[in-house]
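Continuing the batch. This is chain 6 of the set; chains 1 through 5 are on the previous pages. Same settings as before, nothing changed between runs. Recording input and output for traceability.
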Amino acid sequence: MAKPPRKDPSSLKGNRSESGKRAYERLDGAVPILHAPSLVDRAEELRDVLATGTEAFAEILAAEPPRLQALLVADDDWRGAPREGERPYPPGLPYFTRATDPPSLVLPEALSLAITPRTGATLPLTVWHELAHAFLLKRDVVRAPAWLRELIPQTLSAAVARRADLPLEEHLSEVNWEPGFTVRGLKGHAGAEEQMALQNLLLLLGEAALNEFGEAFLRRLVRDLWGETDVVDEARAEELLARALGERGREWLLSQPEF
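Output for chain 6:
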């Protein structure tokens, strides 16, 4: 089957532009940013966030950064942003896509109100989460439970926040600790509120793991996942995580209320 053509994000369809397209400007950095002309200030802020995350992830994982660009999309252009599928992503929710060359982090003009809690750490954590997916998908990754696929970006994001002295404890203090399920207990279709609760539980679990075991387990976990050739089921996912944590890993993991 032929692959769909790569999309050119240098211009996007704008709902209110007379020409139907709006030229995007380029801001160079560790991750180059294509941005709507009106969003230059936000682009400069994100350039620093992406540079911090790229440097930290490369060091934590001992891996070269992926070929990547960021696309900062104006609200009016969101429906025309590059993506693999036909349907646009919900407004305000960042995502990673391989529909462009190089692949893109697609970032909204403003984050969706569904992303909570709202603190000084919210924007960097959200951007680093998508950047972590780009690092993880540098190599082929077999299918694995959603909680493991999302735990890695959340924990990497927490690790960078700690390095950057972001108010992570303040952010975590506003998280609902008892959403009614664990990170492994959310099954089937989930709404935006439940999805956000899951991400916050994973962030809590990741931060707790960093406090107990340090950053080194992340490199082991990612490299072990890269080495898997068969579908990773629930039991194998738990085994990979416990082994990466090291001695006492399984005992500690099973003692965590989020898990």
